Predict the 3D structure of the following.
Amino acid sequence: MNNDESEFAIRRICLKKTIGEERETRILPLQYCDPKIVYKTTNIECLPDPSYAENATCFVKAVNWNKAVAQMDCDLILPLSNISVRVELLKKSYTNRYHPFLINVTVNMCDVIAKRNFIPYGTIFWKILKNYTNVNHSCPFTGHIFARNFFLDENLFPTFPLGFYLMIISVFENYVDRPPKLAGAIKYYFQVKEMEAKKRRKPLPRYN
């Protein structure tokens, strides 16, 4: 192996994506590359308004050290015809309390789905709905609603600082003649962490 090949062998392509910076690709020595960051689901709570939904279940299923997925189900009692979604992000501090962090936005999802609104977080949320739920069509929504194998794809978001987070997703039904009413909320807990390498199992001892 010549010097050029040796130099190439200790390099890799690093993708850097941070808050407030554009995505860029750099070829750097291996020791300077950022480790892979993953957003691992840790817990989920479903809090529907009983007048809008029933039979709600939520739970998390572990896949491996770096990934866990959420499963959600509920049956709508009333149709949701004109919904707005508020997404709030909170980060756990050293005092073990969650504090607002970066995101607090409300968007009319029916407008996003109908392509009347192109707010970035609304578009991201719509991608998530299409990939993991049966809420993949235009308004209204009725009957059984579910999500399968849901997790946050780190490629959809800027890289958050390492730590524990809580995302509160509140769903409101909008009315012409009265204020919006909360139909339900989801509390989604996740950890931003460095990817753990797969642990190799030690070979079993061989006996003659």
